[in-house]
Amino acid sequence: MAHKRVLYISYDGLTDPLGQSQIIPYLSGLSNKGYRITILSNEKPQNYHENKAVVEEKLEAANIQWKFTFYSNKPPVVSTAFGVRRMRKMAFHLAKKQSFDIIHCRSILATMVGDSVRKKLGGKLIFDIRGFWADERVEGGLWKLDNKLYNAIYTYFKKKEKEFFKTADAVITLTENAKNHVLEHFKTKENFQVVPCAVDLDHFNPDHLNQTLISDLKTKWGVQPDDFVLSYVGSLGTRYRLKEMLQFFKHLLTLEPKSKFLFITKSDTSQIYKYCDELKINTNKIIIDSCSYGEIPNYIAVSQASIFFIVTSFSGKAVSPTKQGEIMSLGLPIVCNANLGDSDTILKETNTGIVPPDYSDQSLKNSAEELLSFTTNAATIRAAANEYFALDKAVEKYHSVYKNL
């Protein structure tokens, strides 16, 4: 168990917000249990230069080695193949210098790298799927299956996914919903673990908020003491139902004219204004800002509730939004769409949020009314976050997988 050497491969960067919230904390916990960890990641140049020092400090404190390649998305399609090839070359270089007992791969692209190393140099392979990646790209409109090239690419990745489910020494999913699908079609229960996106309860702790910063933000954004602020935190893209979230806000605004919608995002926000114009929402009611990972709790804390609507076709089975644990840890209720991984089930079972059954005007209006009269207190919501999303519990689940390999 102790002193096993682990090569952890991530196609995402440690200097990305998700790297800081979802990779480094887990691996720091595992390093404290005696595992000797080397991370191979794929860094976006801008994020790397902005956050390199912070990440290096955290990894040094956890005694974790870090190697990386640089990410590029140009030209489309080909860049991904080149990225995998660069990471594979680096992985072989690392594995030849020191043999790894465990090769833990975060996503299908990382597993394409790790599986090559396992086949030639040995080690136990963990397929940590994160999501049904190929299906996400189809359902998000990035890959059109009536295009022969994208159809062939989709077929290739689904074939690789099936292969990895069958040949990996362990499989990890984010949701019970995804686990049930995999067990039904590909895998036995042996060494299978569900680890939802966890939250650092200490970082997202209402008692640790910077009240001066929160007050300054309210002044900056023009938030009044009696305003009702709905927040959205994270990326905006093809997988997120931005228009429907704004439709919900429009109903909220009708019921409570002092409402505001706060977007905490580094994504392109032009679509927000486009839909506001289409839905006739006064953009004076919209606040858009961004911040570092360290400041996110204070930004979310300006709001009274948060929302996320995410596309829920087949790939939705595997979705575990990082933001869910973070928001609940701060004691805020969530408005979330139905049939999203395990998210809606958790909110319903713990009475910590609102789940509209669909996106009809009546359903969104009813849910807005429910939100304004929501009574579950912050302590109860935070307790539910601890039950489902606590970081230490996630580390123990990973530890149980590592021990069995």
From TrEMBL:
The keyword Transferase applies. The keyword Transferase applies. Residues 218-375 form the Glycosyl transferase family domain. Pfam families: Glyco_transf_4, Glycos_transf_1. Residues 29-202 form the Glycosyltransferase subfamily 4-like N-terminal domain. The lineage of its organism: Bacteria, Pseudomonadati, Bacteroidota, Flavobacteriia, Flavobacteriales. This is Glycosyltransferase. It comes from the Bacteria. Keywords: Transferase. It comes from Acidiluteibacter ferrifornacis. GO terms for molecular function: glycosyltransferase activity.
